[in-house]
């Protein structure tokens, strides 16, 4: 058993260091281009779709943030009321009266993906922007993203998604996480391997969406599935790192777990749907599928090894102490003190230091542009504690997925 765990541990460390090295080299090679975006060659028309279910607290601010965009050819904003039971529709009607480009699609509840598919049928823009009803694009977002569609093979463009309100400790942790994810996603863009166009803000080529049949209404994470589908059909996914959209993140652990479980279950659904493309079909099979799958598996193995090694050390210490007390011998002697680090410990510490360096690199590149700064304590707590919650989510979501005990909400 210890030999098997040692092998798993070494594989875990090797893969972690490999990807950290890959991202570091990608950054060094492309660091001058991170904040560069192509200028739109023409004034693409854009329709913005805002799916909403019980969003009375945020829908007005979301729509008004879209209206403040500096993009010159914003045709329409379609609010899709997905059977809301609160005042969402009432507020949407008020916005429709106030702003001529605001339109409403009122429908029975059928989920976000189906809502987008129905709205897409009436949308008139060449490009389709999807903005969640609790998210807020900045003024430059659409313009900075539109230029990537100069390339006819570009099917979708994403941007930085950041936490809107950092008013409690959990949201501060998510703020660090979202910034690291945004930086990592930009690096994946240089490798043609962006695997998700996040729901809070994404821009799509309408003809591409029509060609592939729109969003998958059965998937819990339609934003992951649509990205993989576009890549499978030969489209490119790009990212603008200069713009951003802020979003309302969970403010309690219960909400956070529920959101992350949904994300993971959607990931499992997408892996199963595209499993036949492993190591085929370009970057989808050769990199995205393996990378995405390994990322899920690594956390579970890492947590398992950590729990085993910690429990084993505590048990040995307890039994040794109990025996020493019973035998009336010294609990600790100088011979028990080992100041020579093992290879496994050295590799573990090295991996942790490199991981921390990457986090600080990501934060530096995001924060200097938006003129923010995360506290050192938040970064340390994120690295030592918050990250350990992910494997727990993976295990719980896998159980729910296998047993079928899950729903979108």
Task: Report on this structure.
With 409 residues, this protein is an alpha/beta fold. It has a domain at 37-252: Spore Coat Polysaccharide Biosynthesis Protein SpsA, Chain A (Alpha-Beta Complex), CATH 3.90.550.10. It has 13 helices and eight strands. It has helices at 2-30, 59-67, 88-98, 112-122, 141-146, 169-190, 206-212, 222-232, 253-273, 282-327, 343-370, 376-384, 389-403, and strands at residues 46-52, 74-82, 102-107, 127-130, 135-137, 154-163, 202-205, 236-247. An eight-stranded mixed beta sheet has the order 3-2-1-4-7-6-8-5, with helices on both faces. Helix 1 packs across helix 10 (282-327) and helix 10 (282-327) crosses helix 13 (389-403). The longest helix is centred in the last third of the chain and has 46 residues, at 282-327. It is globular and about 85 Å long. 36% of the residues are buried. The mean pLDDT is 89.
Shape: globular
Regarding quaternary structure, what we see is single chain
CATH C-level class of the domain at 37-252: Alpha Beta
Q: Would you tell me the structural class of the helices and strands?
A: alpha/beta
- Give the DSSP E fraction (strand runs of 2 or more residues): 5-15%
Discrete helix count: 13
| Cα-to-Cα separation, first versus last residue | 41 Å
CATH architecture of the domain at 37-252: Alpha-Beta Complex
Strands across the major sheet, in which order? 3-2-1-4-7-6-8-5
Helix-strand pattern: HEHEHEHEEHEHEHHEHHHHH
Major β-sheet profile:
8 strands, mixed
> Can you say what the CATH homologous superfamily of the domain at 37-252 is?
Spore Coat Polysaccharide Biosynthesis Protein SpsA, Chain A
Number of strands: 8
User: Poorly predicted ranges (pLDDT <50, ≥5 residues)?
Assistant: none
What Rg is obtained from the alpha carbons, in whole angstroms?
24 Å
Mean pLDDT: 89
CATH topology of the domain at 37-252: Spore Coat Polysaccharide Biosynthesis Protein SpsA, Chain A
Proportion in helices = 55-70%
């Amino acid at each position: 058993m210890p030999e098997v765990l040692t092998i798993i541990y070494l594989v875990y460390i090797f893969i972690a260091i490999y990807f950290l090295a890959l991202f570091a080299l990608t950054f060094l090679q492309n660091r001058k281009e991170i904040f560069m975006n192509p200028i739109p060659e023409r004034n693409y028309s854009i329709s913005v779709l805002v799916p909403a279910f019980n969003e009375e607290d945020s829908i007005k601010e979301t729509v008004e943030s879209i209206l403040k965009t500096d993009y010159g050819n914003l045709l329409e904003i379609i609010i899709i009321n997905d059977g809301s039971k609160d005042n969402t529709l009432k507020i949407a009607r008020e916005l429709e009266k106030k702003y001529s480009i605001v339109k409403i699609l009122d429908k029975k509840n059928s989920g976000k993906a189906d809502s987008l598919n129905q709205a897409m049928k009436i949308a008139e823009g060449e490009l389709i922007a999807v903005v969640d009803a609790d998210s807020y694009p900045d003024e430059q977002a659409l313009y900075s993203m539109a230029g990537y569609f100069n390339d006819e093979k570009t099917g979708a463009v994403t941007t930085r998604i950041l936490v809107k309100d950092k008013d409690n400790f959990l949201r501060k942790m998510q703020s660090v996480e979202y910034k690291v994810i945004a930086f990592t996603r930009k690096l994946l863009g240089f490798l043609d391997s962006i695997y998700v166009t996040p729901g809070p803000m994404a821009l799509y080529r309408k003809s591409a969406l029509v060609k592939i049949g729109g969003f998958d209404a059965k998937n819990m994470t339609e934003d992951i599935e649509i990205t993989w589908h576009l890549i499978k059909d030969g489209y490119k996914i790009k990212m603008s790192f200069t713009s951003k959209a802020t979003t309302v993140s969970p403010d309690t652990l219960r909400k956070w777990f529920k959101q992350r479980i949904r994300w993971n279950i959607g990931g499992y659904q997408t892996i199963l749907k595209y499993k036949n493309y492993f190591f085929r079909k370009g970057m989808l099979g050769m990199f995205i599928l393996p990378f995405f799958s390994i990322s899920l598996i690594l956390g579970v193995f890492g947590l398992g090894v950590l729990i085993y090694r910690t429990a084993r050390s505590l048990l040995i210490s307890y039994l040794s102490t109990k025996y020493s007390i019973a035998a009336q011998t010294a609990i600790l002697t100088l011979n028990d003190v080992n100041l020579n680090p093992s290879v496994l410990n050295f590799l573990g510490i090295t991996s942790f230091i490199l991981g921390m360096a990457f986090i600080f690199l990501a934060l530096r590149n995001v924060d200097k542009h938006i003129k923010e700064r995360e506290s050192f304590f938040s970064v340390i707590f994120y690295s030592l504690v918050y990250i350990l919650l992910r494997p727990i989510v993976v295990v719980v979501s896998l159980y729910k997925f296998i047993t079928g005990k899950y729903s979108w909400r």
